[in-house]
Amino acid sequence: MTKDLEGSRILITGGAGFIGANLVEACLRRGAGRVAVLDCLTYAANPLSLAWARQQKAFAFHQADVVDLPACKKILAEVHPDWVFHLAAESHVDRSIEQPLPFVRTNVQGTASLLQASLLHWQALPQSSQDRFRFVHVSTDEVFGSLEQDGYFREDTPVAPRSPYAASKAASDHLVRAYGHTYGLPYSMTHCGNNFGPYQFPEKLIPLMILRALQGKSLPVYGQGINIRDWIQVEDHCQALLQVAARGRAGQAYVIGARNDRPNLEVVEEICEVVDRLGLTAPGVRQSRDLIRFVEDRPGHDFRYAIDPAKLERETGWRPQREFSQALHETVLWYQENQPWVEECEKSYAGQRLGLGLTSPGGKSS
Which of 33, 143, 155, 233 could pair with 170 in a Cys bridge, judged by C-beta atoms 3.0 to 4.6 Å apart? Predict the structure, then answer.
């Protein structure tokens, strides 16, 4: 993989976000010649996530909105990337339930703008550079809808999104395929399960539960906690993305998962065990699991996600390297040890419940 990256020029949209920041670091540590980020710095983008990257000569940051076609064209012309990783997206299901229109704007219109700019860039390249170029569209397993008690998502699973977020990502997937089929733009598409690890904005389940447990606050679990998600440590996901860009076939989709599907309640209970084992139990709390409270379920909550990554493993040689329990242990420590990063997030999110229903732009129920 290092050889594949040496001297390469990479553009990452949404690179100040969770997965993006980890991907930036992975590329720089593996010898990429240039790594540029396009990010408009929304609430979920923490500038501190790129503190290490900003110290590297090969790194460049461009503050721009992916919806802005002229800005996308300008940045592509400046970076002249071999690979474009498109991660810029509104990504929180609960927020999409409250405010669906920003998801359509960023995830659909933004993808269309970036595709158009990338197509024009690619068409102007010499043949050798065209052959190397790849547009990697980072999507989600949520576009497939919900599984019952058994079965797995695979690349040929029918698309059946059930939340505004999932629908917006499915629409962006269709646009990518259309640009590949109609214009020949060389793309790869990925559908990953739930990520966790450093730099994840604390509206998501694992960091929210970690921080609330450390603070001795209640741990709200939706419904009875029986909904199942397939978890992957973010660095494993980033390695999969690099393998797809380097060794995946153009025009193909790849599902990414680490075979870690488990109920949400089980995940929260394991977080509690780690917090207590590390001696981080909040003052006045006997054991962290005493903080668990069952709350009203999310509207339209998908029951189960689980992924079969056999195609990815077979075609690229990728395998997940991080065992779930050890990675969760390391994640708890990361949040405990990175308080300045957490405090920066708290400027825009205080841990409040989101996603109980549609709201107007002013925040009141419509």
Answer: 143
Rounded CA separation 320/191 (Å): 15
Average pLDDT of the chain is: 96
What's the rounded Cα separation, in Å, for the pair 123 and 132? 13
313 tagged catalytic? no
Give the position of tokens 């940045």: 75
Question: Is the predicted pLDDT of residue 30 greater than 60, yes or no?
Answer: yes
pTM, rounded to two decimals: 0.96
Looking at the predicted structure, is the pLDDT value of residue 360 above 80? no
Chain centroid to CA 148: how far? 24
What is the tens place of the pLDDT at every residue in 205-236?
Answer: 999 999 999 999 999 999 999 999 999 999 99
Q: Residue 364's pLDDT band (boundaries 50, 70, 90)?
A: very low
Q: What is the 3-state secondary structure (H, E, C) of 291-351?
A: HEEEECCCCCCCCECCECCHHHHHHHCCCCCCCHHHHHHHHHHHHHHCHHHHHHHCCCCCC
CATH match of 2-201+231-262+304-322 with 3.40.720.10: no
Considering 25, 39, 98, 141, which one is annotated as catalytic? 141
Question: Of the residues 142, 173, 230, 302, which is catalytic?
Answer: 142
Catalytic residue from among 82, 98, 165, 335: 165
Segments making up each domain of the chain, as ranges: 2-201+231-262+304-322
Nearby residues of 287 by Cβ (< 8 Å), 6 or more positions away: 272, 276, 281
Predicted pLDDT of residue 363? 42
Mind giving me the DSSP string for 8-32? -EEEEETTTSHHHHHHHHHHHHTTB
User: What's the CA gap between 273 and 326, in Å, rounded?
Assistant: 12
Verify whether residue 165 is a known catalytic residue. Answer: yes
